[in-house]
Automatic annotation (TrEMBL):
Cofactor: [4Fe-4S] cluster
Full protein name: Ferredoxin
Gene: fdx_1
Residue ranges constituting the 4Fe-4S ferredoxin-type domain according to the UniProt record: 1-29
Pfam families for this protein: Fer4_7 (PF12838)
One GO cellular component term noted in the UniProt record for this chain: cytoplasm
Keywords assigned: 4Fe-4S, Electron transport, Iron, Iron-sulfur, Metal-binding, Transport
InterPro entries: 4Fe4S_Fe-S-bd, 4Fe4S_Fe_S_CS, PSI_iron-sulfur_center, YfhL-like
Length: 82
């Protein structure tokens, strides 16, 4: 379930440092999430950290993936870190 930051984003800068997969970056108008790097924090935390800290709740699910798919993505990202 890759997440997406909507245009309601107020660019408060709290989500980016919370992402363990470095999936969040500043876009042209507001922060964006790279769906290829977003695991909804599976492999790191029980809940998406960006959603936990977002003061305006502008980070809904965008792409539905199973927990197994997210875990596989997590493992692939860990391999590229090595």
């Amino acid at each position: 379930m890759a997440l997406k930051i909507t245009e309601e984003c107020i660019n408060c800068d709290v989500c980016e440092p919370e992402c363990p997969n470095q999936a969040i970056s500043q876009g042209e108008f507001y922060y964006e999430i790279n769906p290829n790097r977003c695991t909804e924090c599976v492999g790191h935390f029980n809940e998406p950290q960006c959603q936990q800290v977002c003061p305006v709740e502008c980070i809904p699910v965008d792409i539905i993936e199973t927990k197994e798919q997210l875990l596989e993505k997590y493992h692939q990202l860990q391999k590229t870190k090595s």
